[in-house]
Amino acid sequence: MRRAVIVWMGLLAVGCSSSPKQLKQTDLQGQKIEFVAQKEPLLATDTIHFGRMHEGEIAVKQLVFKNSTPQPIIIKGYERTCGCTTLDHDNQPLMPGEERAVSLTFDARGAWGWQLKALTLQLAGPVTSHRLVVEADIE
């Protein structure tokens, strides 16, 4: 009996000591935002739909940024039309072909009705800016 308890505790310790699973690029979840090089400096736009929300609710959406250009891209910062939107990102270079998860937060406190907000990403690299339009219906 004592030997069985020792074996069971050893198996439990091995199972608990394993390192957390690292996310692979194929495991990234969320709406994909792709940065592509363009011949003309057009402002590319993607719409992020938060759908119906209740006043006072704070929602977070996962996005996946993908660099489809031949050069690295760095997110230097962003401008927003409202303090109700926040983008959680890092400033590390996004290498060609690389994907990275970021979080977009929409705070519906004090908002009512249909909301349309914008974030303009300031980028360094072959793409210099990209607009994210945030849409939500607050009830």
Task: Please characterize this protein's 3D structure.
It is a single chain. By secondary structure, the chain is mostly beta strands. It has a single domain (25-138), classed as Sandwich (Immunoglobulin-like). Helices cover 12% and strands 48% of the residues. The protein has 1 helix and 8 strands, in the order αββββββββ. It has one helix at residues 2-17, and strands spanning 31-35, 44-53, 58-67, 74-80, 85-88, 99-107, 113-124, 129-138. The longest helix has 16 residues, at 2-17. It is elongated. The termini are far apart. Mean pLDDT is 84; it is low at 1-26.
Determine the N-to-C terminus distance: 61 Å
Number of strands: 8
Q: Extract low-pLDDT stretches.
A: 1-26
Q: Quaternary arrangement of the chains shown?
A: single chain
C-alpha-based Rg, rounded? 21 Å
What features would you highlight for this structure?
Immunoglobulin-like, mainly beta, 1 helix, 8 strands, 139 residues
SSE topology sketch:
Layout: H1 2-17, E1 31-35, E2 44-53, E3 58-67, E4 74-80, E5 85-88, E6 99-107, E7 113-124, E8 129-138
Parallel strand pairs: 1-3, 2-8
Antiparallel strand pairs: 3-6, 4-7, 5-6, 7-8
Brief summary:
The protein has 139 residues and is mainly β. The chain has a single domain (25-138), classed as Sandwich (Immunoglobulin-like), CATH 2.60.40.10.
